[in-house]
Design a protein that fits this description.
By secondary structure, this protein is mainly α. Helices cover 59% and strands 5% of the residues. α3 crosses α4. β1, α2 (52-68) and β2 (74-76) form a beta-alpha-beta unit. The chain is elongated, with a radius of gyration of 21 Å. The protein has a two-stranded parallel sheet with strand order 1-2.
């Protein structure tokens, strides 16, 4: 009975530790309440090709809903972002790096956000 007890305890401990591996640390800056950006950039939604028309409708609805809040001086929609990316290699590189870091770390890059 003792070996089975040790195995159960070990497996339970491993499962608890494995479950904690995906926890993210989040912390709000003390001055976050005073942060009021003037411009918001809506990046395109990545969806499978068979639902691409719905992605465009969702992007438009999202852009309009954010603009209607009047919290931002300027709301830049995904089609404008894509057009600007085609004209500006640095912007394209910055957005690509931003999305890559966001996907790998789950955290927004402050410097890239400011440049975008």
């Amino acid at each position: 009975m003792k070996p089975a007890y040790k195995i159960i305890i070990t497996l339970t401990a491993l499962m608890v530790l494995a479950g904690c591996a995906d926890l993210d640390f989040n912390q709000a800056a003390p001055n976050a309440a005073q942060f009021h950006p003037k411009v918001v950039v809506i990046l395109s939604i990545t969806m499978p090709s068979h639902v691409k028309p719905q992605a465009e409708m969702i992007s438009t609805a999202l852009t309009n809903a954010i603009a209607d809040t009047k919290k931002f001086d300027k709301v830049i929609d995904p089609s404008t972002v894509l057009a600007q990316m085609g004209e500006n290699k640095q912007l394209q590189d910055d957005i690509t790096a931003y999305l890559s870091k966001m996907q790998t770390s789950g955290v927004s890059d402050k410097e890239l956000s400011a440049r975008i």
